Amino acid sequence: MAGFQTKTFTKHDDYMTPKSAWENIEQYIPKDKVIWEAFYGNGESGKCLNELGFNTIHKDIDFFENNKGECVISNPPFTLCNEVLIRLKELNKPFILIMPSSKINTQYFRKLFSNEKDPIQIIIPRKRIQFIKTINGKIPKDYKSCCNFDCFYYCWKMNLPRDIVWLEISDKEKKKKRETMFARTLKKELKKKEKEDKKIRREVGRVLTSILKKVK
Prior knowledge:
Elements: E1 14-16, H1 19-23, E2 34-36, H2 44-51, E3 55-57, E4 71-74, H3 81-91, E5 95-100, H4 107-113, E6 121-124, E7 132-134, E8 151-156, E9 164-166, H5 171-215
Parallel strand pairs: 2-3, 2-4, 4-5, 6-9
Antiparallel strand pairs: 1-7, 5-8, 6-8
């Protein structure tokens, strides 16, 4: 659950995590640990993680008054990032958090992690995460994804293979891209065939009309 304000994003609305955001990094999320998706939002993020095979705790409870799971995988309210990070460090809780790329330049982030023996690691998405906007728990009928800011996956004590991981196109994305291209090609061929069929029908109609005129 994110909160952010730009020209297209309103501060007081909620922006939920799309399943693709977790699919993109599922190889970096441990399946042998209990995960706490600590920010409930509309409840879908935890369901997505469970569908991907992770043992996930996702309850509508106060993050600051609870301590669940072995690591936190979440998209916290962006306006509370400082408080969330302080709390996670107090709990000594490993995490992967989706936050704006600009957070790494803030003074509080520097203060929390610049001298940390366990350094922050970052996963950089291939493209912007298109959050799902909700108002009063529902997606507006006229809603269209238009996220115009970049986010990173900030990781702490997750033992990534590198401190900076640049995501490559996944096998699922490759498959989806192939399927999309096939669908477009098929649609184009069907339209072409439809035009040819119309042309044939017109020609047949012309011939039949000519024959009927001769019979008369």
